[in-house]
Each structure stands twice: as C-alpha cells, then as structure tokens.
Design brief:
There is one protein chain. The chain is mainly α and 81 residues long. The protein is built from four helices and no strands. Helices cover 79% and strands 0% of the residues. The radius of gyration is 22 Å and the shape is extended.
C-alpha cells in the first residue's frame, strides 16, 4: 500500500473514529507532533526573516528558471566526467 493511500485511509478514518480512538492515536504521536511544531529555534527564524527581507527589498541574489536549469545541467555533466 502506498503512503498516499495510507494517508487517505487515515484521514478518512479520523473523520469517523470515536473519541476514545482519536485520543489513543493522538497519544501515540503527540511527542512527534509537538517536536515538529517547535522544531524552529530562534536563530533559524531570524535567518528566515533575514532572507525574506532581502528578497522583498531586492538585495537577494535570485536566479531565473533558465539560469537554474543551466547550472543543474552543467553540474550533472561535470559529475559524469
């Protein structure tokens, strides 16, 4: 069974499961959910904010799709040698 199908089946089940089962499932994954929600420390958030600001004010170096594609092709070709 694919992960996509499992996700869909779980989503469908959670819509109809009784309260006791919902609480039991949540208890099994609660620590992981809390960890994911709090995974960004203050330094990471500052860096995201810095990058967002530099993009918004135009000081960030950005690349067009054509430039990105050309660089990727060049890198792949250089690794084949």
């Amino acid at each position: 069974m694919t992960t996509t199908l499992i996700r869909q089946k779980l989503t469908d089940y959670l819509k109809i499961a009784d309260e006791k089962k919902i609480k039991a499932i949540y208890t099994m994954v609660e620590d992981e959910i809390d960890t994911i929600a709090n995974d960004w420390d203050s330094d990471f958030v500052k860096e995201l904010n810095r990058r967002s600001e530099s993009f918004e004010n135009g000081s960030a170096k950005t690349y067009t799709w054509e430039e990105t594609k050309a660089a990727a092709i060049k890198r792949v070709q250089s690794k084949r040698r």
